[in-house]
Amino acid sequence: MLTIVPPPRPRSFSPPAPSEFWERYVRWLEAQGYKDEATAALHRATVIFCRGRPEIHLFAMHFDERRGDIEGARARYKKVLEEISPRLISATTAAANFEKRQVGLPASLFKR
Q: Which residues have CB under 8 Å from 25's CB, separation 6+?
């Protein structure tokens, strides 16, 4: 007996915008020396394409901290912890480690 399978329904192709893609793209831009373009791409990723994904915001926090924008990183931590994902353990840990680095406490105090 022959079984007829209907063809798949046509659908529009819209590529996903995962946070991994944006992280790699920003790192590549930064490695090529395009600092302003990397900042603009990260802004687009966090505001337009991946605004609800905490991973890209955590990456943006580290990016801001590396560039010396401490207040910007602190604001991003606050946004993630209060609005985007308040119960995310990795965000809470990252925020605590960020504050620890800002105070200048030695890491050996917090290791077992």
A: 41
Judge whether 53 and 19 are in contact, CB under 8 Å.
yes
Residues in Cβ contact with 20 at an 8 Å cutoff, skipping those fewer than 6 apart = 55
Could you report the per-residue pLDDT of 1-54, keeping only the tens digit for each? 667 766 666 555 555 557 888 999 999 999 999 999 999 999 999 999 888 899
Summarised one tens digit per residue, pLDDT across range 66-94 is: 999 999 999 999 999 999 988 899 999 99
pTM: 0.74
Domains defined along the chain, listed by start: 19-104 (1.25.40.10)
Provide DSSP, the chain: -PPP-PPPPP--------HHHHHHHHHHHHHTT-HHHHHHHHHHIIIIISTT-HHHHHHHHHHHHHHT-HHHHHHHHHHIIIII-TT-HHHHHHHHHHHHHHHT--GGGG--
